[in-house]
Design brief:
With 226 residues, the protein is α+β, with helices and mostly antiparallel strands. It is built from 5 helices and 6 strands; from the N terminus they run H-H-H-H-E-E-H-E-E-E-E.
């Protein structure tokens, strides 16, 4: 006679608990899905019921009921145009008068200053890297008479002195800014690091000297007028 082994009671209880838990999770999931569907349907129904419907009709379109009413409505909406345009004639007249004013009567939109020769010297060939000193006697004058131009050292490696390819052209172009009112220049001395230019008047008489100093690479570092 065969002996029947009983199924362990603990395993049986664990299996029933697992099945019950799965059933509860499935029930909760289905319930949540049902609630979401009901909420979506209710919201859509409420929005449709509250959305206004506009009907536009004119005497030419006739009745919008009966067969073909939808087609008539579409044609009516497509052909609808305002019959009266509002215009403020007084405002248009004032605007035309204002636009027709002379330029002298209008306030300028912006105020700017003309670029002076000194500005051109500072930020043109000197590139804003040099200190320009005026003569002591004319320091209080509006007109600035240049007595010295000196390169200002910078911490930036890429910031280097500029090169002057034509010293005579440089002096002649900015001669009106110099403290010595010369009319012409003539080279009197030149070495590796210095050039001395004689400043002459209109009769070729000497009036002073301009000393230009260069570094070992031929870059301009200083100019002084004597």
């Amino acid at each position: 006679m065969r002996k029947i082994l009983p199924f362990p009671k603990e395993r049986s209880q664990r299996a029933r608990a697992l099945i019950k838990s799965e059933a509860q999770r499935l029930f909760l999931s289905m319930s949540l899905l049902s609630l979401i569907l009901v909420a979506v349907y209710s919201t859509d129904h409420m929005m449709k019921s509250q959305r206004p419907v506009y009907l536009i009709a004119t005497q030419e379109s006739g009745s919008l009921s009966g067969p073909g009413s939808e087609e008539k409505l579409n044609r009516t909406v497509a052909n609808f145009q305002p019959t009266e345009v509002f215009r403020d004639l007084d405002w248009e007249r004032r605007l035309a008068e204002r636009l027709g004013q002379n330029d002298s009567e209008r306030a300028p939109a912006s105020i700017s200053q003309r670029v002076t020769l000194m500005d051109e010297l500072k930020y043109g060939p000197l590139a804003g890297k040099y200190l320009i000193r005026a003569s002591a006697n004319d320091a209080k004058e509006v007109k600035m008479d240049v007595a010295e131009i000196k390169y200002v050292e910078s911490d930036e490696v890429s910031d280097q002195p500029i090169r002057i390819s034509d010293a005579k052209a440089f002096l002649m172009k900015y001669r009106s800014l110099m403290k010595v009112p010369f009319a012409n220049v003539e080279l009197s001395y030149k070495s590796d690091g210095q050039e001395v230019w004689q400043l002459l008047d209109s009769h070729q008489a000497p009036m002073g000297r301009a000393k230009l100093t260069f570094d070992d690479q031929g870059r301009f570092v200083r100019m002084s007028l004597e």
